[in-house]
Write a structure and sequence with these properties.
By secondary structure, this protein is of the alpha+beta class. The protein has two domains: 348 residues, YVTN repeat-like/Quinoprotein amine dehydrogenase (Methylamine Dehydrogenase, Chain H), CATH 2.130.10.10; 275 residues, MetI-like fold, CATH 1.10.3720.10. The protein is 37% helix and 27% strand. It is built from 15 helices and 31 strands. Strands 6, 7, 8, 9 and 10 form a five-stranded antiparallel sheet that branches. The chain has a four-stranded antiparallel sheet with strand order 1-29-28-27, with no helix packed on it. A hairpin with a 5-residue loop joins strand 27 and strand 28. Helix 1 crosses helix 15. The mean pLDDT is 86.
Amino acid sequence: MDPRPATPPEPAPPPGSAGAAAPPSLRRERTAPRRLLADRAARWLVTAGGLTIIASILGILLFLLIEVWPLTGKARLTRVAALGQGEPPLGAVVVDEHRTHLAGLAADGRVRVLSIAGGGEEVAAVRVVPEGARLEGVGATPGGLLTAALDGGRVLAVPVAFRVRFEGSERRVAPEVGEPALFELAPAPAAEEPPLGAYAVQADGRGGGTAAAQLAGGDLAVVRREVAENLLTGETSEGLERWRVPVSYRLSSLVVDGAGRNLYGGTPGGEVVWWRIGTDGPGGFQVVSAGEAGVSALALLLGDRSLVVGQEDGTLSVWFPVPRDEGGERLTRIRSFPGPSAGERAPIVTIARSPRDKGFLAADAAGGLGLYHSTSHQLLWRGASGVARPLGLVFGAKADSAFVAGAAEIAGFAVDNPHPEITWRTLFGKVWYESYPGPALVWQSSSGTQVFEPKLSLTPLLVGTLKGTFYSMLLAIPLGILGAMYLSHFMHPAYKRHVKPVIEIMAALPSVVLGFLAGLWLAPRLEQAMPALLLMVVALPAAVLLAGWLWSLLPRGLRQRLPTGTEMFAFAAALVAAGWGAMALSPWLEATVFGGSFQRWLLAATGLPYDQRNAVVVGIAMGFAVIPIIFAISEDAFTNVPPNLVAGSLALGANRWQTVTRVVLPTASPGIFSAVMVGFGRAVGETMIVLMATGNTPILDWNPFNGFRTLSANIAVEIPEAPHGGTLYRTLFLAALLLFALTFLVNTVAELVRQRLRQRYSRL
């Protein structure tokens, strides 16, 4: 035992003193610099990544806008040359594609060739009118043909060609005047009857062609000459046909199409007359009224289908034959272009069509010049030509130039008109195209001929996009959401661990594989088993309800002895049995209900055609591509519902179904809505499935048994063949911009709705 007294403990220092130790709860530990640096770097990295994504999206948007913006440009005509006419002046002219030479027929009967670079210097002259003949009128056709009406009832057609050769790197253009073709419309003994000035001619350059004119007595004379060459012997044979028909109208202008099958005439009273020239000559004529003002000029647009009518009051209109229900065709006014204001109106004296599209130039007697486009129904440009009274008008071969011939000079214009076909109406509204019975919404960007009229309506593509999305979401939404609901709150965890990964792996299936299977495997089998599919729509839900009812009838003791989750196999067996039964009953159903053929019954009963690759096939294939996305996001939304809400509902006496539908489902609704919108965006942007499984036909209807074309599939199909910078090329970028805007709008609305739902159910 230690005798020393115990040492009393030292008193603790008062709180706040220097020697006091801070309690653990108040002690501040210094954060390691390395951790601070890592946190700061992670924050910078996340911020940079977010800004990069935003910049990328804005960059894509900016690129699309840059490519689309030229579609809004306006046409311009700029005067670039003034050529001296010389004596005698040229009444009608043609120009070569390189804009180096002009050729025209002068009043002295010579074809004069002028150099454009030389300011109108004459470089060649060839006499084509026979000696002693008198010119009654001159003209030109779009194919480089100079024409003339002669006394004695004769019409002359002179082909002019511009041969191009190269001397080293220098290009040389050599004008060549071909052999004139002479058509005698009023042969002896009526040779003294000259045409009245209204004449038309088309020639093939080999001496053949068709000519028509109104003679002094009022009759319409038509001559058709056909020249054929034997390829073996080189001998030529000629066939000549003449017709003369009485006409009760005095004709102020005539025009014949390139095939010599349709003849159009205009009268001073404002009537337009149409003759069909068959094997028996002109017959079956129609007369329509263009208005009170007289017809002063006629021209056929590219393709020789649309007729442009110019009148004394300066107005212009476009006509073409329209199919009638009772058969045949009727010449119909399709579009009207009003003239200048009342104080500036002057008669239209000449019209020149564009060699590239359905556009045309029109010049009036006061020197006014206008550029028009028929399909888009636009006045693209109007101004003064600088020529007092135009005698001739010609479009350049590349539609990038125009020349107006007057008595003293020839004015040259540079034409900048890159996208005349594009307006809001042609892109989204109905347009009356040639050979159509009425206005329609059509996408048809190309054809086998150069005279094709592009049809660039985006409406069928937009409807096709929504159609494919609708039918795919019709399958994906109920299966994805209800599957997620069952897996998260009803399925046994032992099975959930296997089922959920399998469904999510479905999202990794390439869309090209799904499209291949849908187009080549599913579509033909679905065509044979369509009655079975219709029966499954009723049989599968009925089988599920029946299986559930039978399961509830089992004794409670038996159900409790079965492993938890066994009911899933019972429902799966019921679905398999119902599907097998529907397939087995399909032949009987098709024979008894649909008369042996579902396709024929559908067409006869509803008027709807059945295509093998249709919206039903796409709905099934694209539904499988969208289901995993909707399922995964919805399952996360169901799982993230606070467990205390579920436990509280069950504790208050609600069963599992009531708890899920009345508590869990409203709480998870923001996430479910996001899942639906993400799936919608996935379906809208899908390309390969719709490209391979729809037939890719831009048909405008909601028939589930028809094909369609979407915006994304159309871009994939058309962009490789679209000329860079052309109208089709930029229209496809406009389709991409529309798709971009559609998905952006849907995502924005989805986010707003999700936030509203989140605020509404956040109090639960």
